[in-house]
Structures are given as structure tokens and as C-alpha cells.
Design a protein that fits this description.
The structure is a single chain. By secondary structure, the chain is an alpha/beta fold. The protein has helices spanning about 60, 70-85, 105-120, 145-150, 165, 175-180, 185-200, 200-215, 230-235, 250-255, 265-270, 280-285, 300-310, 315-320, 325-330, 375-380; strands at about 5, 10-15, 15-20, 20-25, 30, 35-40, 45, 50-55, 85-95, 125-135, 155-160, 220-225, 240-245, 260-265, 290-295, 350, 360-365, 365-370. The strands form 3 sheets. An 8-stranded parallel beta sheet has the order 8-9-10-11-12-13-14-15, with helices on both faces. The relative contact order is 0.16.
């Protein structure tokens, strides 16, 4: 860990960027560190980014089908990308889905066990999140024990079945490609989807029971891609208080009005809208909806989204950075990080003030990434 006082930089506080020193000792932000000062003139210091939901790590674990046999090496590579983008706490969202293959139960078991094994050796705080497809009723009895075995405290429920086409007896789009990726015969894959679709009438009551069990275990729960206020209300009744990426304005408004935690996608902000026609994250933020921005599938996006929001005058830099630091910390119940207050964990992001490129990332007072001139300053 570095015990050091940074001087000469601008530091982000609740009122904006301030010219003041920032001292770090034993992994925490402190009043001062006598005798060890580093001049960071030309840089800005911000709280480390907390990514509350991202699946960009998938490309590191399996860049090609069957190409990655040692998942621990893939996690090391994923952590390097996270750190290079200023992320100090990362929730890795791994599917358990009927899609199979890299989203099947067997691969998920490998991923979560690898996270549990490798994460203590890394600097970035890596946490797993189970993304579970709701119609896989046969797995419901096993989920509570699997969560315990995998060391997980967060589950998000998805339903990506193409119910409309299945109900009409039509062939789902991209079905053959999905089947081949999963290593299944296309006819068998279609039959699986049809059988899961037929589970529909039993899903609601099964979810009631499963969520009650998980809540008793202290598991945090979220829903994914809400479309209606009624659907969000049903999730809330089950104790599912996080709404990830609501697809419609009505669903987002309902979640916010009820006090649920609303997570939006930072790529939606960077793109200026959803890639598939859902409600704009920028519009929601302008309405005061959304407590956190997640990387979703692109780790550079949280940093870029925060500055885009601030530069365009939608909200201030402090408010924008809240969406990628203290806001996500609140979603995850992490009271020890998210801001640069004295006594907090030294999760720190240093950016070149002119280019806003990441110069250094620190998690818990340890350097996870460093580049360019700032390295020379610390060595000197």
C-alpha cells in the first residue's frame, strides 16, 4: 500500500473540483501523511468507479469457443482492463441461462469458483452476480445452495425467451446460431425453448418461494429489463428492490417513485440512446431517475458517460460522478467507499486533467494501474 500525500491536483468533492491535497495511509483516506508528498499538478483525482453490473469480462474468459481453458488467467486479464478504465470495484454478471454454452450452468460454476479463488490475489475488488433465467424451474431448488457455494450475495432475474414467437408457433430469430453456440442440435434447442415457454403459468409462484428463501439468506435481488409498472410492483412485492436497465419510461418512473434502486446503462448515455430502442438513460437522468450507471458491456463507458453528462450541462460533475461511484456503492450497500472523504477506503482514480485519460487507479490504497508521467513522479 502507498502511504502518500498527493498535492497540486484538483480533487473532486461534493461541491466540484477543489485544489487541495489528498492523503492516503494504510489503505484509507486520512488527514495527512507527514514527509511523503507527490506533486500531481496537471491531474485530477476522483473516487474510483464502482461498476454495479458488467459482462465485458466474458471476452477475456472465452475469446473464442473452447479457446480459454484456464479461467483464472482470463480474470487476471479482465482485471487489467477494469483497472485501466478506473474501476476499483466490479460486479461480474454471469448468466445461468437456457442459452447454454458460455451461459450454461456448468460454465457459470467454473466462473464463480474461479472468481472466488483468484479475487483475493487481485487488487480490484471483484464480485460475482448471478443472472438467472426465470423459466428454468428445474434449477430453482438448487439456487440457494449454489449461491452459498459460489460465495454470491447478489442475483438478478432475466427472461430472454422470445415468448411472442414461441406462442405463435414461429421459429425464434437466430435460433440456429444460438443452438450451435450452445453445442446443441437446433431441433433439441427449439424443443427446450418451447418447454421453458410452457412453464410460464408456474413461474410467478415459483419465484415467490425462491425469492423468500433468498431474502432469508440476505441475498440482494434485482430484476432486469422491466417493461411495466405492474411487473416492477410484482418484483418489489417479492423483495426485489433493484431495477436494472428498465426498458420503458413507465417502468422506470414506477421504480423510482417506489424508492427502488434504478441502475442505468452507461453505454446508453454514451450512444445518446438505447441500442435497441428502449428509453433513453439521459432522459431518465434529466428527470432525476437513476441512482447508478453500470458498464453493462463496455468498461470505458462509465467514465465517458459521467463526463458527457457534466460537459453537456445535464448535471454537475459531482452529480455525474455520483452515478459511477457513491451511487453504485449505495446500490451494493458498501458504506466504506464511493467518495474521497476521510476514513473511506482509498479507492482513487487519477486522470490527466487535459486529456482525461486514466493515469493511475488505486483500490484500497494499492495501485492497480499506472501509466506515463505519473509513474516517474511516484518513483522520483
Amino acid at each position: 500500500m502507498l502511504n502518500v500525500e498527493f498535492t497540486g491536483a484538483t480533487v473532486l468533492g461534493q461541491g466540484g473540483l477543489e485544489s487541495r491535497p489528498l492523503a492516503i495511509a494504510d489503505g484509507f483516506i486520512v488527514d495527512e501523511v507527514p514527509g511523503k508528498a507527490i506533486d500531481l499538478a496537471g491531474y485530477m483525482i476522483l473516487p474510483g468507479i464502482i461498476d454495479v453490473h458488467g459482462d465485458g469480462f466474458e471476452r477475456h474468459l472465452a475469446p473464442r469457443r473452447g479457446a480459454m481453458k484456464t479461467l483464472s488467467e482470463g480474470l487476471v486479464a479482465a482485471e487489467a482492463e477494469l483497472a485501466a478504465n478506473g474501476i476499483t470495484t466490479a460486479v461480474l454478471a454471469q448468466f445461468v441461462s437456457w442459452e447454454g454454452g458460455l451461459r450454461g450452468i456448468e460454465f457459470a460454476d467454473q466462473v464463480f469458483r474461479a472468481i472466488r479463488k483468484v479475487s483475493p490475489e487481485l487488487v480490484t475488488d471483484l464480485r460475482g452476480q448471478l443472472r438467472f433465467e426465470t423459466h428454468m424451474l428445474d434449477l430453482y431448488p438448487t439456487i440457494p445452495q449454489r449461491m452459498a457455494d459460489w460465495g454470491l450475495s447478489y442475483i438478478v432475474f432475466n427472461d430472454h425467451l422470445p415468448h411472442g414467437r414461441l406462442a405463435e408457433g414461429k421459429l425464434p430469430k437466430r435460433m440456429v446460431g444460438q443452438a450451435l453456440k450452445a453445442g446443441r442440435n437446433p431441433e433439441a434447442h427449439l424443443k427446450l425453448m418451447q418447454d421453458l415457454h410452457a412453464n410460464g403459468p408456474d413461474v410467478s409462484s415459483a419465484l415467490d418461494t425462491l425469492c423468500a428463501t433468498l431474502a432469508a439468506q440476505g441475498i440482494q435481488m434485482g430484476s432486469h429489463d422491466d417493461t411495466t409498472p405492474q411487473g416492477r410492483a410484482a418484483w418489489r412485492k417479492r423483495g426485489v428492490f433493484v431495477a436494472e436497465f428498465p426498458e420503458t419510461l413507465l417502468a422506470a418512473e414506477a421504480a423510482a417513485e417506489a424508492g427502488d434502486q434504478v441502475v442505468l446503462g452507461s453505454p446508453n448515455v454514451v450512444r445518446g440512446g438505447s441500442h435497441n430502442g428502449n428509453v433513453s438513460a439521459i432522459d431518465l437522468i434529466m428527470m432525476g431517475i437513476g441512482g447508478a450507471l453500470a458498464s453493462d458491456y463496455h468498461y470505458p463507458s462509465p467514465r465517458r458517460a459521467a463526463f458527457m453528462l457534466a460537459d453537456s450541462g445535464v448535471i454537475s460533475l459531482s452529480q455525474a460522478w455520483h452515478l459511477v461511484s457513491s451511487g453504485p456503492a449505495s446500490v451494493l450497500g458498501l458504506t466504506d467507499r464511493g467518495s474521497l472523504e476521510i476514513g473511506k477506503r482509498a479507492d482513487v482514480l487519477v486522470l490527466n486533467a487535459a486529456t482525461r485519460r486514466v493515469a493511475m487507479t488505486m483500490a484500497g490504497g494499492r495501485v492497480s494501474y499506472m501509466s506515463g508521467e505519473i509513474a516517474a513522479r511516484l518513483v522520483a
